[in-house]
């Protein structure tokens, strides 16, 4: 709103109005507003949740300090959503298709998570929203994103073209025409652009159409997987929040360099017109998660619930898709990936050994992986991996996961030059 207001004032030569044309200025303002919104209104929302006795139901899993969390207010993801949307609406260009897509993603997945939390808290159903409905909601968001990327004429790129002399890159140029295509960034290879349509060279004139259909299916899978991964990671105070803030920072950097033709040329990556506006959303995202961490760090005063975790994961997934860096997600979101894999491996191995021997065995002492470190090795659990023998304090586990997340974020950015 401010962006459009000051754009009008700038035409009237009002002093200072031109500052709102700079992405750097609006990004800084979005971060500050998100941080202030999360901390100021967050306290009031927490008090409201406490008055309404909207507390977390805790199952006794034998983890140290676990039962002390009983009754802690949940559904705090409302704070994150509010702190993201308010600065975005104020400082972003609301005619930008990417911003509109991110706002829609935030609202839709926020409503999906809210429905899940509402059933758990008010209907006293520990299972929450039926898993099939949750998957349908995530698939619908992925489908929406894929179709908008396919059908919107504003979603375009400019391919990077190298000029080489004696095997050395002398310059990177871009065509003057925007290109509508299914190309994306792939890490660790010399030519780091990959076109999904190339998998359908055999289809002749239908090649591009099949490429877009495949791209839409990829969008559905990524949104569902990352959203669920963030949901599984949200098991310790501040773990999902801090990890998301780190991931959001890396995505913001990638969006900025992809939307600046000079930086894109230096890194030899595709240039995406109008994608720089995503920096405002990324800044709001970072400010919201850092602000929420004020209340969510150990010992947590509020939990985000599925309202927050499904939203955070979905935002990260859609953001990566929009800036054509979705194939970097396994590295950047390595924490989410490992947490998800630990649950899949644990479930598969338990069912397999139970079918073979009649007694189910485990790989980890407990899954998701962060709970494995909370269990002592002598807890009488038949698991292949018993270390560490002593249970680790929750705050230590969280900080170490954050450090790993920082390393993965750095590697993700470095991959743009590692070919």
Q: Which labels suit this protein?
A:
single chain; 419 residues; mainly alpha; 2 domains; two-stranded antiparallel sheet; 14 helices
What does this structure look like?
This protein has 419 residues and is mostly helical. The protein folds into two domains: 29-161 and 172-331, no CATH class; 344-388, no CATH class. The protein is 58% helix and 5% strand. It has 14 helices and four strands. It has helices at residues 2-11, 23-51, 77-91, 97-122, 131-151, 207-233, 239-258, 261-267, 278-296, 305-322, 329-332, 334-357, 369-372, 394-414; strands at 160-165, 168-174, 183-185, 193-195. The protein has a two-stranded antiparallel sheet. Helix 4 (97-122) runs antiparallel to helix 5 and helix 6 (207-233) crosses helix 12. The radius of gyration is 23 Å and the shape is globular. The chain starts with a helix and ends in a 5-residue tail after the last helix. 46% of the residues are buried.
């Amino acid at each position: 709103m401010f962006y459009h207001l000051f754009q009008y004032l700038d035409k009237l030569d009002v002093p200072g109005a031109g500052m709102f044309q700079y992405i750097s200025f609006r990004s800084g303002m979005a971060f500050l507003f998100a941080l202030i919104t999360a901390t100021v209104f967050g306290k009031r929302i927490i008090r409201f949740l406490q008055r309404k006795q909207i507390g977390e139901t805790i199952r006794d899993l034998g983890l140290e300090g676990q039962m002390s969390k009983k009754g802690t207010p949940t559904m705090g993801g409302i704070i994150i959503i509010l702190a993201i949307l308010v600065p975005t609406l104020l400082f972003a260009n609301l005619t930008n298709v990417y911003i509109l897509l991110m706002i829609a993603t935030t609202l839709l997945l926020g409503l999906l998570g809210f429905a899940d939390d509402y059933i758990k808290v008010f209907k006293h159903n520990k299972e929450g929203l039926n898993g099939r409905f949750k998957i349908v909601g995530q698939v619908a968001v992925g489908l929406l994103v894929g179709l908008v990327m396919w059908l919107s004429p504003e979603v375009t790129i400019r391919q990077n073209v190298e000029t080489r002399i004696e095997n050395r890159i002398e310059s990177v140029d871009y065509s003057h025409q925007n290109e509508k295509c299914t190309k994306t960034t792939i890490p660790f290879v010399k030519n780091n652009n990959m076109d999904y349509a190339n998998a359908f060279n055999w289809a002749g004139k239908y090649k591009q159409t099949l490429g877009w259909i495949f791209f839409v299916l990829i969008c559905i899978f990524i949104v569902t997987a990352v959203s669920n991964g963030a949901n599984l990671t949200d098991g310790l105070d501040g773990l999902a929040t801090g990890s998301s803030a780190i991931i959001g920072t890396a995505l913001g950097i990638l969006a900025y360099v992809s939307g600046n033709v000079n930086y894109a040329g230096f890194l030899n990556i595709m240039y995406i017109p109008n994608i720089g506006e995503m920096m405002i959303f990324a800044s709001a995202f970072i400010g919201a998660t850092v602000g929420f961490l004020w209340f969510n760090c150990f010992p947590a005063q509020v939990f985000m619930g599925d309202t927050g975790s499904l939203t955070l994961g979905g935002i990260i997934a859609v953001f990566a898709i929009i800036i054509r860096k979705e194939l970097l997600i396994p590295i950047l979101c390595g924490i989410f990936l490992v947490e998800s894999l630990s649950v899949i491996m644990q479930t598969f191995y338990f069912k397999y050994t139970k079918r073979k021997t009649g007694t189910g065995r485990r790989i980890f002492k407990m899954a998701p992986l962060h709970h494995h470190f909370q269990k002592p090795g002598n807890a009488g659990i038949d698991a292949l991996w018993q270390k560490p023998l002593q249970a680790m304090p929750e705050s230590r586990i969280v900080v170490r996961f954050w450090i790993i997340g920082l390393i993965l974020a750095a590697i993700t950015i470095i991959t743009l030059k590692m070919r």
